[in-house]
Amino acid sequence: MKNLFWFVFGIAGGFVLAHLVNKDPRGHEVLAEVDARITEFTDRIGDAYREQEARFAGIVDDVKDAATHAASAAKATAADVVAGAADAVNAAASKLDDADADAPARPSASDSTAEAAAPAADGTPKLTD
């Protein structure tokens, strides 16, 4: 609390002193020169900030463009891979259909079960593959 008191007291004393100095013509010139220097400094800082902000905005735009391009390229590549896989699956299914059409007819599972369950003519059960 004591530090706060001294801080406020210093600020108030500074205002009183600046008011007294500003009443004198020489003091008025000094304060005007200080004000001009402070204004020049803040203008330079503001210009540098805006320049740096513009530079960063350009970099961010370049990164966004690169990311968009990379995403579209990855999407196109994925679509090509999916199309290729679909073509491979269709070709394999076609080959299986052709192989089934060329192969001799195989007995169904129900036919072989019925044969296995029926005893042979001599009364012994049949052995199946």
Which helices and strands, and how do they pair?
Blueprint: H1 2-23, H2 25-102, H3 109-117
Helix pairs in contact: 1-2
Written account of the structure:
This protein has helices at residues 2-23, 25-102, 109-117. The chain has 129 residues and is an all-alpha fold. Helix 1 crosses helix 2. The longest helix is centred in the middle third of the chain and has 78 residues, at 25-102. The radius of gyration is 46 Å and the shape is rod-shaped. The mean pLDDT is 84.
Strand content: under 5%
What is the mean pLDDT? 84
Q: What is the number of helical segments per DSSP (H or I, 4+ residues)? A: 3
Please tell me how large the radius of gyration is.
Answer: 46 Å
Number of strands: 0
Structural class by sheet pairing and helices: mainly alpha
Report the major sheet: none
